[in-house]
């Protein structure tokens, strides 16, 4: 497969007609061929019409065929081979091993959703049989299943050029739900996007999926993304990126004639609470694992631990000294884009001029382009509670240590936090009383609560929640990672007294798919 | 229990301090004592603080106790006895038998949700056990459950003074989810609201629920409702009412610093499609049952059949003649409020001056106050497709018949519709081909699809969906009637590597509650 600078409008690979942009290798500053020309509003309209037209056909394809399509997408991504890995490395500055691992995760996600599609649990099939003899009124035959919302707009994320981009988690879960997908490619990795997009189209072709089940749009700016979200054919949006970007999409979606759900994963500082006994016993080990988590991937993870909360005193000083020693030897790593690197440096600059915080340690400098020098700050709980800017996410390898003078301050800091993707407690058995006090506060703040680990490294499984109260996400009810992500793209439909030939197969009395269904309120297989 | 004009701020029954308003008996125009004084912004703040404070305590009460609380609310409503029935009749103009039936439904809903709470299926408990030996990376122990969103604001509906008001479906499902509830009473039935509110507080007292689990606010206008939705303590909103009212709440919720979900059930004309063979064979019976559904309760149901779509010709003429005969004998019934009656008459007036429609039949007139004269109009599909005003809901016993010149026009009318709560097909075996074409269109438009019935009469069960795409509701993913309504007030939380003593009982390995849980992706009991 060649990289040719083409968008995908259904099965048609076409070049845009707008202004040309090029990817850049952030590690070297090198411009990468070919040019990617932005699409037009007409291109968005074409993709939306194709998706709308494909919707009924795609959603009514047997589940087994839908599952096979997802598995074939995984295969076609692997078939792309080294060209994909090399291009993604060049466009992202991420190491080859990381990209290969991410490719594995991307394929694993697609296969997980294939198994989810087959299980049919997401249908939440329910049957309340008719009661013709009930008094005073008979009961009708009532059956419920979930159907897909309709075409979904997905925005590729910069920090996972494979796993949260063109065939990433949002796309996999939307396709699994039965929704056609239109991806707005992230301008930082257009070549990777084109290759993966073509792999999806190749799989769609092999599996005889209707044209329009997938399209891919390029735009160097924000106009076409806005146009896409505003298009009446689009029924939901998946986005991973900045708070400003997510809020902009939420506003567009809310102002439509028909408002639609937006699943935006935006901003999280992932607090880590060092409970007193764990800190006393493990200050050195905690510092080493914290620095590893903080600096992994230049800190460019949604779950990067950006806030550490501990009891002021000698044990926390030990932790900070150990952290300083480890961090001062950490290499500056390439960030994903020059913009992200500039934003990081600006945020660090602001913190350096904030008299409420002091610098604890920095990592090694580098004169190479776009390298992230890790930075660690500290402040007091009192300062943190009065300066809201200290709760803002800094995307990159930066964190803030908060020193608490009392257990009450510990709890106050937790209560003061905005919504988070994760919250972590480092604890020993002797910390359980405090942890029991802290836990209900953290449950109100975060989508995932960890003990004695670090939040980076998100397992793709059934029990994962990668979500959380605003501003971590725009919709705290759901997750964007793991099999429950399919639930975002579904709505419930009830069928009352339908003749058997009209009933969807999932709700026919004989249960030929072997689904687990709720019969009169009780699970039956 | 006396009716004394009191709001409920937690356990405190207090009179408001704003302007006094009185309920009116719509059947007679009589003013009903006592005066209800509007609350203040401080009252809203007090209720919100109490709810916020009660939240952790309430959500962590064992499920069995939460279920008993709901059942006790049902008992306490019954204990109110005749004073409740008489007051609800006086405030709504609805017949006593209807109010008694609605009381039974209200109690039934509370008991259904008690059984749902006990089942724990809504927790969607999932366990992915640790895999310490997995390569290249071990897997953590990951467990998921759903927790309640937080305090919920509920707006009482005018048309169900019991079943969709103070202790109605929204309140029952939110309390079942573990959310404290603050109800903004509907100004048309303050006495009914006060009585039921006091029954809830009495049950909360008997069951030792934390203060703040329930509050009740009065306001003659819209200010306190807006204040309530804007309060940071409120995490979700339940509303049944007009499109304008629902949109106003959606806007307030979207503009908050932390946007929250609004479940507004707003507007639906509930199309009924008369398929050709059914119409030919059953024109007379279809007409009789249609008129019964149209005029029931003066047409004041969200699911009132406001649109009938049929193939132009002799069979449809038969249907219209039979409908005219039945409707012309239908008594004018009391509407819920003078405002609703005025709105109805205004809408009828607009249709009468619309040259695209003609009047088919009217019901009997009445000189008594606030009586609804049923009215039936007809138009052509061509007109309907070009005049969007013909798709607006008329709240009351009014419907529009659309005459289609072809099967394609039939489908076009379906495709042209906005989102609906229900869509109905009247069909015979010979209509199955057309029904198969129509069904996917209707699935995209409606939350419930019926065959050979009428949409009024909403069963409260597990498979019910009382929801649908905008503007039927603000959130098509869910239902406001039936046990799945609990899902609206929940969010997923993942627990990673928590020590056993910290794990919620629902997720402890021994499964002492006997829940159905997803273990590594497979249901286990």
Main beta-sheet annotation of chain A: 7 strands, mixed
Largest interface: A-B, 81 and 83 residues
Please report the distance between the alpha carbons of the first and last residues of chain A. Answer: 45 Å
- Mean pLDDT across the residues of chain A is 97
Secondary-structure-derived class of chain A: alpha/beta
Helix content estimate of chain A: 25-40%
Number of DSSP helices of chain A?
14
Question: What is the global morphology of chain A?
Answer: globular
User: What is the C-alpha radius of gyration of chain A, as a whole number of Å?
Assistant: 25 Å
Oligomer: homodimer
Number of strands of chain A: 23
Query: Strand arrangement, largest sheet of chain A?
Result: 15-17-18-13-12-19-20
Strand content of chain A: 15-25%
Low-confidence stretches of chain A: none
Explain briefly what this protein structure is.
The first copy, chain A, is α/β, with parallel strands linked by helices and 525 residues long. The first copy, chain A, has 14 helices and 23 strands. Chain A has a seven-stranded mixed β-sheet, with helices on both faces.
How does this structure look, described?
Two copies of one chain form a homodimer. Chain A contains 14 helices and 23 strands. Chain A has 525 residues and is of the alpha/beta class. Chain A has a seven-stranded mixed beta sheet with strand order 15-17-18-13-12-19-20, sandwiched between helices. In chain A, strand 10 (236-240), helix 8 and strand 11 (262-265) form a beta-alpha-beta unit. The interface between A and B is large, with 81 and 83 residues. Strand 21 of chain A pairs parallel with strand 20 of chain B.
